[in-house]
Amino acid sequence: MWNNIFYALLYAWVMLHAILPFRVLYILSDILYVLVYKIVKYRLKVVRQNMKASFPDKPNTELRQMERAFYHHFCDYIVETFKLAHISEGEIKKRAFVKNPEMIDQCTSGEHACLIAYMGHYGNWEWFTSACLSFKHTKLYQIYRPLKSKPVDRLFIHLRTRFGSDGIKKNDTVREVITLEKKKERSVVVFISDQTPSKANIHYWTSFLHQDSPFFTGAERIARKLDLPVVFLDVRKIKRGYYTLEIKRMSESSKEAPEFWLTEQYARMMDTCVMRNPAYWLWTHKRWKHKRETV
Q1: pLDDT reading at 292 higher than 90
Q2: Which listed site, 28, 85, 123, 270, has its alpha carbon 20 to 30 Å from 264?
Q3: Residue 42, exposed/middle/buried by CB under 10 A (0-12, 13-18, 19+)?
Q4: Do residues 186 and 195 make contact, with C-beta atoms less than 8 angstroms apart?
Q5: Is there a contact between 243 and 249 (Cβ–Cβ < 8 Å)?
Q6: What does the pLDDT read at residue 254?
Q7: Helix, strand, coil percent values for the chain (each to nearest 5)
Q8: What percent of the chain has a predicted confidence (pLDDT) above 90?
């Protein structure tokens, strides 16, 4: 009962913001920036540690400039995510533009109907995984970990599925992808795999942003098991409220790729993406809390 009441209040609060025009939302974002960055200092210590370790040669003045740019973008991301509750599909696809959607058809019209897509917490991933990668003949799925708060989890599920996309719980991933492939359902399954795996799920380490970093390998294991095609979703922020995405083919025959090759390629492509403009990556995550064990 209380969860339902809290959800209703939360949804109403989000919708109240979502109906506002973008110019007003970005004024609210500027106010939120002062609150989040200047007053609350949300995860500021984590952000500074991550940036300093990732850019050891940059002077503090440049790091602070990057830090401020990140928090400005982070607050934009928050209000843009709220906007998902009200924005039309036509408008969001103009603002989050897929440059080469024909790649989806090319990858799902052959022997395999299911396509594995790597992505990162970069730009506004919510817009692309909620609407902009959905096409007439292809169903979009995103792997996700349910949030501890049931009302908040319910809200995000609603926002992410408004335009026909769907979610797959992390623990159900293997079974669900196998089912999609067996049913020959043309689908894109998005793995946002740039954050830290749990200690028990660390199977591969490589360099990422100048640091020794563990990476999730689940997407690769599923792709190799089913011999699925794999792509990387390369996002760029053009200006405030506008993004583009380019679909880059990584592998047509995953089974033939050496073990961890796909994971390594993802790390390299994600590294290039972040280095292009670091302010648009999610620096608040404790990305490097695990250290490689040495014998």
Answers
A1: no
A2: 123
A3: middle
A4: no
A5: no
A6: 86
A7: 50, 20, 30
A8: 77
Structure tokens at 222: 């599923």
**Rounded average pLDDT over 241-266:** 92
Give the pLDDT mean for 16-20: 95
Give CA angle at 229 (225, 233), nearest 5°: 120
- Pairing relationship of beta strands 114-119 and 187-192 according to DSSP bridges: parallel
pLDDT-derived band at 294 (thresholds 50, 70, 90) equals low
Contacts for 136 with CB less than 8 Å, ≥ 6 apart: none
Q: How far out from the chain centre does Cα 114 lie?
A: 19
Q: Which two tokens stand for residue 187?
A: 């689908």
- Distance of alpha carbon 120 from alpha carbon 111, whole angstroms: 27
- Residues 84-98, mean pLDDT to the nearest whole number: 93
Residue 227's H or E segment, with its range, is none
